[in-house]
Write a structure and sequence with these properties.
By secondary structure, the chain is α+β, with helices and mostly antiparallel strands. The protein is built from 4 helices and 3 strands, in the order H-E-E-H-H-E-H. It has a 3-stranded antiparallel β-sheet with strand order 1-2-3.
C-alpha cells in the first residue's frame, strides 16, 4: 500500500522539478523546437482546467482537486480496489493531481510546456500525462474486472 503513496510522491516531485526548470529557464510564450513543427517545449500557463475550461476559477479548481485527492487517498487506504493495475492508476492520478494542485496554490495557474504541434494538441505537462494515463488504467480495469459469479 505504501508503494503507491511513494509512487505518487515520486510523480509529484518529477512534475515539480521539471516545471521549475521550465519556469526558470524558458520565458512564458517562448518555444524551443525539439522536432521542428512536430514537438516543441513551449512555456505557457493555464489558469483553468484541461483545455482551458473554467479559466480563472482557481479556487473552485483547488477545492475540486483537494476533494479528488482525498477520495483517491481514501480508496487507496481502504483497499476498495485490490487489483494492482487499479492501484497503479490511482497512484498515477494522485501524483498528477498533486502536481497541478501545487501550481494552483503557489502560482494561481498551472505551468504547461509539452507542445505536440503535429496534431495541434493543447500544451500540457507531466502531471497531465499521469492523470490521463491513470484514468485510462482505471477505466479499463473497471470495465474488464471480473465480476463475481
Amino acid at each position: 500500500m505504501k508503494f503507491y503513496i511513494i509512487l505518487a510522491t515520486a510523480i509529484f516531485i518529477l512534475d515539480q522539478v521539471v516545471k521549475n526548470i521550465v519556469r526558470s529557464d524558458i520565458l512564458i510564450g517562448e518555444t524551443i523546437p525539439l522536432i521542428n513543427g512536430v514537438f516543441h517545449i513551449t512555456h505557457v500557463v493555464n489558469s483553468g482546467a484541461a483545455f482551458g475550461v473554467l479559466g480563472n476559477a482557481t479556487w473552485l479548481l483547488i477545492i475540486l482537486s483537494i476533494l479528488i485527492i482525498g477520495g483517491v487517498i481514501y480508496i487507496i487506504e481502504s483497499r476498495k480496489f485490490d487489483c494492482i493495475w487499479q492501484r497503479l492508476g490511482l497512484a498515477f492520478t494522485l501524483g498528477g493531481a498533486l502536481g497541478n494542485l501545487m501550481d494552483r496554490i503557489v502560482f494561481r495557474q498551472v505551468t504547461d510546456f509539452l507542445d505536440f504541434r503535429l496534431i495541434n494538441f493543447p500544451v500540457f505537462n507531466i502531471a497531465d500525462i499521469f492523470i490521463v494515463v491513470g484514468a485510462i488504467i482505471l477505466i479499463i480495469t473497471i470495465i474488464f474486472a471480473r465480476k463475481p459469479e
